[in-house]
Amino acid sequence: MPTQLSRPSPASDAGLAPLRLCLRRDARPETRAIEISLRVPTDLEVVEEAVDLIARHCLASGLPARTARFNLRVALAEALANAIIYGNRLDPQKFVDVRVAITPSGFTLHVCDQGDGFDPDRVPDPTRPERLEQPDGRGLFLIRKLVDEVRFNERGNTICMVLRRA
Amino acid sequence: MSFSVRKDARGVVVIGVDGQLIVGNRHELKQKVMDAVEAGERKVLIDFTETGYIDSSGLGALVSLSKKLRDTGGELRLAGLNEDLRTLFELTKLDSLFTVADTTEQALAGF
Fold first, then answer.
1. A36 located within any domain
2. Residue A128's closest chain B neighbor by CA?
3. How many domains does chain A have?
4. Residue A52: pLDDT above 70?
C-alpha cells in the first residue's frame, strides 16, 4: 500500500490561496516511485511558488541542480502560465492540476487546465524570421527545447513533459 | 521584484531588473521605458545583473520595447545576462535581435 503524506505549503502572501502539495510514496522499495500532486488556482501570482515547491521535491529526488533550476523551472512556469492565461482564461473559478511522477527512469510532469484545449501543431515556430519580433508565442517553444519529451492529451488541455535521468 | 531607473553621464537611461522579469511585472518595465521615451530619451539599457529569471512574457516585452525604441530612432540594449538567461535568448534566437553586453560598463561604453 502506498503511504500518503500531506504537508502544508509555506505561508503565502495575504490574499493568495495557499498551495497544498500532496505526496504519495510507493511503499514497495523496488519501485521507489513518488507521485506529487498540486492544485494551483488560476492566479499568475502563485506560479512562482508552485514551481518552487515542485522543483524542490524534484531536486531532492535526484534531478540535477541545473536541470531543476533551469529546465524544469522554465518549462513548468511556462506550462502553468499557458494553462492559466490561455486554458482557464484567467477564470478564478477554475484550477490547474499539476501531477509529477518521479520514477527511477525520470520525472514526468502533467499540467492540466479546465479549458477547451488547443492544437499544439498549429503553434508557429517563434524563431522564424517573420515571427521573431512577435511579442508572444515562445512559451511552448521553450518547453519543447528544455525537456526531453512533450505530449498532449487529445483534447489539448493537458501537457505532459518528461525529463529523463541521465 | 523591482526596477531601478538612473541616467548615466553619457545620457543612457539604465533600468535595473531586480529579481525576475515575468508576466506579473512586465507591464511595469514597459511603463518605465515608455515614460523615458516620452520624456525624450532614446538610448535605454536594461541591466539584468541582478535578475534570476525572465519568462517568455518578459522576453516578449523586451521585443516590443526594442521595436518601439527603434521606431522613435532610439535603441534598447541589454547587459548582465547570466548563463541561464543567455541560453533563453539563444534558444529563441533573440540574441540576434539585441545588442547584448556582458556588463553595463561595456554596454555604456559602446552606446
1. yes
2. B93
3. 1
4. yes
A139 touches chain B (CB under 8 A): yes
Look at the block and give the residue holding cell 533550476.
A69
Cα separation of the two ends of chain A: 29
Q: Give the range of the structural domain holding residue B48, as residue numbers without chain letter.
A: 2-110
B20 reaches A (C-beta below 8 A): yes
Check CB contact under 8 Å for A127 and B92: yes
Phi, psi of A53 (to 5 degrees): -60, -50
pLDDT of residue A18: 77
Which CATH number belongs to the domain containing residue A94 in this structure?
3.30.565.10
Does the beta-carbon distance from B60 to A135 stay under 8 Å? yes
Residue B95 DSSP code: G
Q: What is the value of pTM for the model shown?
A: 0.89
- The one-letter amino acid at B68: K
The domain spanning residue B17 has which CATH number? 3.30.750.24
What are the tens digits of pLDDT across the range B30-71?
999 999 999 999 999 999 999 999 999 999 999 999 999 999
Q: Can you give the pLDDT at residue A4?
A: 47
